[in-house]
Structure formats: structure tokens, C-alpha cells
Design goal:
2 copies of one chain form a homodimer. Chain A has 302 residues and is of the alpha+beta class. Chain A has helices spanning 2-13, 56-72, 93-109, 174-183, 196-207, 222-231, 235-241, 254-262, and strands at residues 19-21, 28-32, 35-45, 80-88, 113-122, 127-135, 152-156, 188-191, 210-214, 248-252, 270-277, 281-285, 288-291, 300-301. At the A-B interface, helix 1, strand 2, strand 3, strand 4 and helix 3 of A face helix 1, strand 2, strand 3, strand 4 and helix 3 of B.
């Protein structure tokens, strides 16, 4: 279903002359009188993306931060946010304000204008839709489709087990993305929302290349190790396939990657985890290649 | 509840220097390197804004057209649309495509780029969130807050009874709005989504003025007359308080209004229905003023 629907949207969107990049990247890119503008829209739904007992201020924060992360995944900084909210009858005015305060916390932290919204009642669960725009302001929006054979694959932070808490309190890598895009030629970027292997596969498919991940290089989070104890699965598997870490996954020239690792431009850890190859999708363990099946939370995202 | 929440958002949004107009108008207005950009977001929810038996292509069309109407209410033409959809499990791939085709119908009709979206499953009803942006491109975004004492109040088309069908097949007044904003100095504009009296009251409150509506001048639609037979209420009451006609309600200098009526600049009918006064909110019938209570569908809208 996912593939057919995306292709349908792509076919329809192909008719829009001002549309440079449509569905299939973290943001759409629109040509405007002030250069490229990126726009992303995300819905988070009670019972799907968060449970009913999560504090509403955190829900508001997450709704904003998810969209900020999509803009970071274009190498840009979010500029303005609007939010539409479908509110179940059980929520009070004070509840609605908590959501708003959460949105505002995120906007304040990242210098984003909280521009407005739409609030309606719903017979269903709480549903928030955030839309964020950003002008490129001299930077180049980085797509998923630019990875080149020989590129190093890099990731910020550490991965896996976000369900234990990080999925509600992650750091959208806005500052890192802008610093990287200002200092280096990034070839392809994405944020890890579906899971490392699934999101790397998005880059691979859009770029028409292959990839090798070095098992020993993947930065495994403490949460992944903790979750592994509970799940009985290897911590590496959590790091490879858990979603919602919202770390930045990107590819660049090997020489640039070495330069970045040698001379970090920010405090957030960055790790080289593999390389772009001509075709195939592999995990390399002790020098041995095994085919890797992209795994992660499957959803549609434009 | 509505008022307190809007004020909370206004207080929070006041901290954003690039934000020229936040919640409380049809669109937010953001200062960008290319001049003002307007942005609007709207959610339409199954069981609230449309019934489950409405053809999905019409639902998609409405979702887009509602946001186009908000941009028209700023005197501008919509430029790009993104849509997030929460899809109940009962909907098939073919159903999702129907929604998409409806969005595309509207985008094609008004020359808007269908830029992308986000699709998720929901345990609740079908929920679509459309966000539309537009650069002012040399025009001035027209707000609700600019009505002046002595202005004529005008409306496009005819009003009332949209529930009989127009609410799913209305014409967002994009062409009319741009033509008016290009040819005249519009003082205040809004689209009629809540109902004539409720939406005129939004202009009155934002502009800190009053208004008189001439009962005999209100253009009553055939649908309002038809609905009046069913409801037993006067057709005028339907024209005054029914929502979702999505006609353009605007104020301008009396002299300009007479010039417009004398020399129409488009085929859509325009009617002078009253005037802006210092204070109060009145219906004038046969020269007699009666206080008018703003009535209409109440929801929150930013």
C-alpha cells in the first residue's frame, strides 16, 4: 500500500512547476521568490504515537520536535510552526494549555515562531498535526537522494530503546544539522524516525545505491542495552531497528568524514558507521558481510 | 474556553519577532526574506466536519478548499499545500487514493502545488489536516482587524443552507479575493465559515468597531429558502447564521464599494449588506435597528 500511494502522490505532484521535491523526502522543497522553502507536516495520534497517560506538555513538545527533526533532516533550521489539534471532550481548557505550553517550550528552545493553529473537538483520540516551514537562507536543502558510492555513513548520538523515554524527550538535531550543512558538503540526510536500517534504506533507495553498516561501529545507547535485557534480543538489533531516536543519519565524502571526526564542530558525538556501496544492503560483522533486512516502524511520511 | 486559549496562544506567540500576525486571523503572517508569507492549517474530522457516507474524493477536495478559502480571506492566492491524514483501518488503498485525488482536484483548479504529506493509521475516524502557504507577492495580506467606521460591508455570492450540499462543493473565493486586493484597498476580510453574523463579529471584535447589517440586503441562497421550509425558521436566519458558505466577507470605503458594484471586476455577485459603525452589532429591518446576537457554528480557529 505505502509504495503505491507514494507513487500516486508523486505522479500528481509532478504537475506542480514550483515544486522541486515532493513526497519521499523529509520535507517538500518549494521554489519561492526568496529561494527554496521547505515544509513538513506530521500528525501524532493518541494510542499510535503516544499513550493516553503521557503528560500533555510532553505530547505538545513531541509534536513540535518531530517536525523540527524533519527540517533538520534537510540540513536547515525550522522557522515557524502551526499546529492543528483535534481535542477529545474529556480534555479541559487546562489540558489544552498544557499542550500549547509544550509546543511553546519546543519553539522557544529552537527559536521557532509559534504562528497559529486550529482547534476542533473530536469523537476520537487526541490528534495533533504540526506543520513547520523553513527558508534555506543560503544553505542547500539536503535530500535523501544524494548519497554517492564511497560516501561514509555517519550518525549523531546513540541509538535504540527510545521507547524507554527518549521518544518523548529527544533532541531534534537542528543545531548539528545546520552546523554540518554550513561547514561540509552533505550528500544525503535523514532523521532516524523509523529505525536506523529502515531510514538508511530510504537513503539507499532514493539514491539508487547500496550500503554496508559496520556492526561494531553502531553507537548503541544505554536504553538499547537496558531494553535488550527485557526483550532478550541483542542490543545491536534495537540500535538497528528501533524508531524515534530522531538522530541525524547522513552521508558525505570519506575525507570530509575523517576531517569532521578529527575536528568536531559540536559536542554531540558523531560516529562513522559504514559506507555507501554500489548495491545491496549489508551488515558487516568482523569483516564478514551479511544481507541486512531493513527493519523498523513502517509508516508513510512525506 | 475559546477566548482564554486564544489569549494564551497570543501571549506565547508575542515572543516571536518574525511573526507579524499570529492566532486570531484566517492565516498567520510571517516576515520572510521574500516579504510576508501567510500560513493556515485546518483539520477536518469525520463525524464533525463531514459524515462517514460522503464520497472520499469530496472529503479530500473540501480539506484543500477550506484552507484555500482561509488564504483567500487574506486577499491572497494559495501557493502550496501539504496534507497529513489519519486513516482508519477500514479504509483501503483505493480509498486513500480517492482522498488524494480530491486534494489534487482542488490543487489543480487553483494552481496550487500539492507538496506532500504524512499518512498514519488511527483508531479514530478519518482526520485530514491541510496546511497551505502563500507569499504575498506584492499584495498586502488583508487582516480582520482593519475595518473602519463608515466602511461598507460586502459579501460575495449568496448565503445559508450550505448543509444541503454547498459545504462540500463550495468555491473558495481565491480569484475574487486576489482581484479585489489588486484593485481596491480592502480594509478587512474574512471567509464565512462560522456564519455571516459570527464571522462579521470576528471582524468587529478584531477591528474594535461595530456593525449594522441591512436585513433586506443579505443575499439569501436558494438553499437557505429550501432549508427554511424544512426547519420552520426564516430563510434570513439561515443566511445570517449558517456556516460553511466560504463566501468572502469584506469591508472597504463606501466610495470604493459603490465603484465596485457599478463596475464589477468579476462575474461572482457582490452585495453591500451593511456598514461599519462605532460600536454595537445590529440588524436593520425597514430602518429599525435591533441588536443582533452573533450566531453560528462555534469552533476554534487560528
Amino acid at each position: 500500500m505505502e509504495f503505491a500511494l507514494i507513487n500516486c502522490i508523486r505522479r500528481l505532484a509532478a504537475g506542480s512547476p514550483s515544486l522541486r521535491v515532493g513526497i519521499g523526502d523529509d520535507c517538500a522543497v518549494i521554489d519561492t521568490p526568496a529561494g527554496p522553502l521547505v515544509i513538513t507536516t506530521d500528525m501524532i495520534i493518541e494510542g499510535v504515537h503516544f499513550l493516553s497517560d503521557v503528560p500533555l506538555r510532553q505530547v505538545g513538545w513531541k509534536a513540535a520536535a518531530v517536525s523540527f527533526s524533519d527540517v533538520a533532516a534537510m540540513g536547515l533550521a525550522p522557522e515557524a510552526l502551526v499546529c492543528a489539534a483535534a481535542l477529545p471532550a474529556r480534555l479541559s481548557m487546562a489540558d489544552a494549555q498544557e499542550i500549547l505550553l509544550g509546543l511553546n517550550d519546543a519553539c522557544q528552545t529552537y527559536g521557532v515562531a509559534l504562528a497559529g493553529g486550529d482547534t476542533d473537538s473530536t469523537p476520537g483520540g487526541l490528534t495533533l498535526c504540526t506543520t513547520v516551514i523553513a527558508h534555506a537562507r543560503g544553505l542547500k536543502p539536503v535530500l535523501r537522494s544524494g548519497a554517492r558510492v564511497g560516501d561514509a555513513i555517519l550518525v549523531t548520538g546513540s541509538l535504540g530503546g527510545s521507547i524507554l523515554g527518549k521518544h518523548l524527550a529527544f533532541t531534534p538535531r537542528v543545531r548539528e544539522a545546520v552546523a554540518l550543512n554550513s561547514s561540509f558538503e552533505l550528500h544525503a540526510t535523514i532523521d532516524i524516525s523509523d529505525g536506523l536500517s529502515a531510514d538508511l534504506n530510504h537513503i539507499v533507495e532514493e539514491s539508487k545505491v547500496g550500503a554496508v553498516i559496520d556492526a561494531g561501529a553502531v553507537p548503541i545507547s544505554d536504553a538499547a542495552r537496558q531494553l535488550a535485557v527485557q526483550s532478550g534480543k541483542p542490543a545491536l538489533q534495537h540500535a538497528l531497528s528501533d524508531g524515534e531516536d530522531f538522530e541525524l543519519l547522513f552521508t558525505m565524502d570519506c575525507a570530509d568524514a575523517r576531517r569532521l571526526i578529527g575536528n568536531p564542530i559540536f559536542d554531540t558525538p558523531v560516529t562513522i558507521i559504514g559506507e555507501i556501496v554500489e548495491s545491496g544492503f549489508f551488515l558487516r560483522t568482523d569483516g564478514k558481510l551479511e544481507p541486512l533486512k531493513p527493519q523498523g516502524y513502517e509508516h508513510l511520511r512525506g
